Amino acid sequence: MRRRAVAEAIGAGERLHAAAGALLTDHRRAVDAVREAWAPIHADLARSELLRIPADRLAHVTEGRLRPAAVAAIEAAGFDTVQRVLDAGRHRLRQIPGIGQQTADQALGAARQLAEAVGETVAVHLDVDRPEPRTTALVAALYPLVEAGPEARRAVEAATALDAGLGPLLADAAPAAGRLRGWFAGRERRERALAALTEIGRRTGRAAADGVPVLLGQASVDLLRAAADEAAAWVDFELRSAEYYGLLAEVTERPGGGADPAAAQGFLPEALAERVRAQALDGTHRRVSLRGYQSFGARFALAQRRVILGDEMGLGKTIQALAALAHLAAQGHRHFLVVCPAGVLINWTREIEARSTLRAVALHGPGRHDAFADWRGEGGVAVTTFQALTGFPEPAAEELGMLVVDEAHQVKNPRAQRSLAVAAWAGRCTHVLFLTGTPMENRVAEFRSLVRILRPDVAPGTGELDAVAGSKAFRRAVAPAYLRRNQRDVLAELPGIQWTDEWEELSAADREAYRVAVRAGNFMAMRRAAYARPEKSAKLARLRELVADAAANGLKVVVFSAFREVLGAVEEALGRQPSAGGGGSGLLFGPISGSVSPARRQRLVDGFGEAAGHAVLLAQIEAGGIGINLQAASVVILCEPQAKPTTEAQAVARAHRMGQVRAVRVHRLLATDGVDQRMLEVLDRKARLFDAYARRSAVAESAPEAVDVSDTSLARRIVEEEQARLGAAG
């Protein structure tokens, strides 16, 4: 190899190695900043908890080795809590009459054991409504890591591999850098140097082809970026709290985020849990960080192969499924299929594209058979509906890497056509994952139907007696095929808000009503056209599904709309559903509108809050978004996007406020290719600037119209654009 070529190869390797090292240094600095901000907050929380634990608990920890009389003497000396025992130390404990060295050591050992357990479970809560200097510093430290996003994780993984691989290669290649040095190196070292040069060239070439240098450079820039100011960091946290908490758990090496490890693992038998933990999980094709319980859920699906993931709504079942798909794709599988209700098909394709590098193929609509042929040839994650699945030929054995069935309780009837189609596809696939947020413990017949499709060997153990024996016994019986975690068990910090944009494809009736409104140039009619034909409304169908899911989990729901006509359609739709065990709306309150007197409005809110279990409150967004407390609700449904960012924020804030004991999940119903999409395109361009500055300023409080974009020209422009797009000018 010529001298110049050698120099160029070594130079390219050194530059790539330096870039990898710089990124790792930047990432380590960002991680250390988070840990330094977190540690004193966590230590104080743990100390406060230990100050509440009475000293007599020490006897339980030592299983009787610490005598009750010794514990009583320690308490009488003023060390009446676990923390005070720790503060006392061995010397002060031994000064207590009757406490010798062995007893003092036993007491301290037990106290340290309790302190370790408390340290693992206590969670730091970031209260956006009560920011203080230490929590503000922690949010500001997390901001660059969150802003860097999933690409930073890929960059750090690539940098780690390059740093470990290129360093030794560059050292081996050093003798080739100079003629004399190479001459005196000896034959073995010269050969090793040439081999190293070849490998350096291969790795740098591959890295360049994969865009790794650009990835490393961009990640370093992102990690060095600080929040514009403290208010901007808090606003960003409020918008993406789940990402902040997820990264905090990852950075502080507490995958459970303060949750009980057994709860995060669904209280599975230890032997099974150990097998799941040993399952590898390749994140090459994944673009999202996983919480500890989410990683366990994906590993469970892979290790057990044919399972039901029954996590409570809002715990990220979709992300766990994508993590399993990404792992299988890294192992060489090319074809995957997701079957879901039509109302969530668009969300699935968007999630696949946003959260992974996998190709999403929608098998829906008139062109679904052409799309199916394309998917069979090119691969990717196909997404189809229960109805459409019946029209596709079944795959060859083992052709499908994984079959994912969302809202799997919809195939509970073994004689239904959709159930037969799902069973036929599942029979030809090694990995099958059923997703359902509907609790199965009290629906044994339905559960047995699902298990028969997945694991006939487990089905005999799901008889009525197993259910009667209690949920723990039932869980043990179905553990090989069923994993469910509840939000209260695994989200110790209860993230503030989880936003989900529910994109719906308009039905033919919806589209016709929308075209009529566009032709008339009626902006308000365009916004509510998706509800003009309630019996055929795609948005209403999805709203009923969301309410049914909340009902199954005993959650309260608030439904907001700007239009009384829309709330009337919702009221009729929910009122038509059975409420006793059939996934209906349960108790229905409202609607609250501007014409409802304050006294009656308060009675409606009180009745909603005091109702046992599931209930639904309907409210006009301007009337229900201000001045009332809806902290009983943990699910908020926005029937359409609002022109003012403050309108949505104020409405959601009625539920997301101090006293809320559950995470608030917000579902915004949106229609594709219409006024909703046009409004979001305009609003999204200004939303970040608005949220970062105006929302926490005196200007926003006194004159929201100064920063909102709900002016008349916006409506006029959207009407004109839609008329031009549809060729429907009035």
From TrEMBL:
Domain of life of the organism encoding this protein: Bacteria
InterPro entries: DNA_repair_Rad51/TF_NusA_a-hlx, Helicase_ATP-bd, Helicase_C-like, P-loop_NTPase, SNF2-like_sf, SNF2/RAD54-like_C, SNF2_N
GO molecular function terms noted in the UniProt entry: helicase activity
Alphabetized UniProt keyword annotations: ATP-binding, Helicase, Hydrolase, Nucleotide-binding
UniProt domain Helicase C-terminal: residue ranges: 542-715
Protein's UniProt keywords contain Signal: no
Chain ranges of the Helicase ATP-binding domain: 298-457
PANTHER family: SNF2/RAD54 HELICASE FAMILY (PTHR10799)
Protein name (record): DEAD/DEAH box helicase
Naturally occurring in which organism (per UniProt): Streptomyces flavotricini
